[in-house]
Amino acid sequence: MATIQDVAIAAGVSAMTVSNVINDHPNVRKATREKVLDAMARLDYRVNVAARNLRKGRTGTIGLAVPEVNSPYYAQLAAAVIAAAERYSLRVCIEQTGASRENELDALSLSRNRLYDGLILSTVGMGPADVELLKVDHPVVILGERIFGGPVDHVAMPNVDGAQAATQHLIERGCRRIAMVRGPVGEEVDVSSLRFTGYRQALRGAGLPLAPDLVQSMEALTLRAGARSARDMVASGLDFDGVFCVTDTVAIGVLRGLADVGVRVPEQVKVIGFDNVEESEFLIPSLSTIDPDHDMMARRAVDLLAGRIGQTEPGADHEEFISHFSVVIRESTGG
Amino acid sequence: MATIQDVAIAAGVSAMTVSNVINDHPNVRKATREKVLDAMARLDYRVNVAARNLRKGRTGTIGLAVPEVNSPYYAQLAAAVIAAAERYSLRVCIEQTGASRENELDALSLSRNRLYDGLILSTVGMGPADVELLKVDHPVVILGERIFGGPVDHVAMPNVDGAQAATQHLIERGCRRIAMVRGPVGEEVDVSSLRFTGYRQALRGAGLPLAPDLVQSMEALTLRAGARSARDMVASGLDFDGVFCVTDTVAIGVLRGLADVGVRVPEQVKVIGFDNVEESEFLIPSLSTIDPDHDMMARRAVDLLAGRIGQTEPGADHEEFISHFSVVIRESTGG
DNA sequence: TTGTATGCGTTATCAG
DNA sequence: CTGATAACGCATACAA
Q1: Which residue ranges in chain B fall short of pLDDT 50?
Q2: Whole-model pTM?
């Protein structure tokens, strides 16, 4: 494959002139440029990105580490990040971590290895205990709920407020015994625990009791687990008239589970989710949910990262950005 | 940031020995190895991937160019490709082309630039006319329906046969006036036209007429367009008792559109899709569909690519792989 | 406006 | 088992 040298020889100029042509430097005479372009075309020259990266110390690529791409929420987020990165001419490489702490740390070290100019890391496996590991000398933006106040920029969803608004919406629609379907209960802060806090606050605000048997805790936030949860609740004779689901994916499962056992939504039970994934509008019944403004989050994350990539020094203070949300009211809560 | 040289000095050995330790070469004395590992840890050494890539002429990364990640089908495919690539220790960088021919060619040239060791290219914008452009000297696997018999390996879905089976299933369930909801009608071969062929074959095989007014052609294969199509069909007084949707995404929209105008599925109209995206199982009603075995396709594509990456010469003959399919019967066709 | 010299960090080769 | 040397292809700084 042709190198810059080959082109230089073919065009009868120096390698440097070829480089100047490639990079659109102004100080190249038109005639020279033509000669070079012609030689490049003849030899089918392609820049060697690896060499350029080495020389420049930049790759023009940022990493995006998410638990899985095959999930509407992260897929949507990834698309938004790619779109936002385009404005900075940054390529995005998506890394799947499978929600494991180890893989998240791997992603972190890959960007340390200068494979990426920076990293947007969606933390699910890593927790507050890992904050120290984020003290790296290259740009990182954390996207998620697990780590606050770390030594890096942070973009988060309005989990507590959004969950509170969702629950409050159910209350306003007349629900009095509101269940929540959530992920595993653990020591540490995660999406489920934050949204549970919002749920609890809404109940308290309305003077409703927090009944432990109304809180369903599942192993994983999947369609299947959501469906099973719903069937279990009904099968166990639980009395409830509303469900706040920790994510839309879970809510889709819950809708299906309720249908399986003949419970009508929204007549008998009202359901609300969180995320506003694209499909939610087209379900039957369409799903009420919280829209956390993914696009804004993605844009903010990329902006922060791009800003850090420019500067030489670590940069003093780190930003915490929490996006705004809106309640999207659809058929599943009586529309 | 520490280089291999710094480590060498700190450990009192040569750079080469450090390199040998890093790459697990056998001929390093234990004591030496320890010294080096110790120095690496002290200096927090990280390999510079750009330098390694330059030297090796490999990046360990393959590109996956798809129209959009924010679409259940491609998201699922991407996840499967990532999983398959892992077995070869290959990283996957997802490139969004937005279904534009230009962006697809961009992706092609990026891998030519040695950003990637190879490329899996999902062609939607490029067509048979662009076959010549695929004659590149580095590994490419085409994933899609637009280009057959090109100068590269090719993995495709069982479009015609799958569509025929889907339509036939509707016929077996008693449908006699079967509509098809598809993408734009054009000169060239694409997913819609191939699946339309299958649809036509099934009708002919059953001795049913192909009624032009039963074929709905939409601008884009989206949820929204699917919903509108369904509403339009009903509003225009069209008489139909079954719908074959060109993709599951479209089918989800169609189910919603039928619900909007009070048509019951499967009692009045039966619906079947194509792709078997994860959500289809959890819809209300759950969606019958064709499962083209994404995992197999992804694995095959990665296997082919990995095989080409190994070899030095372009390799003579190119493989055409068409995956198998199965009909998944669910509630939308009467379960 | 163009060319020369140099080094980015790594590893293959081969000699010690 | 270890080390010296060179080269991967490009772009910065400076000289002409």
Answers
A1: none
A2: 0.92
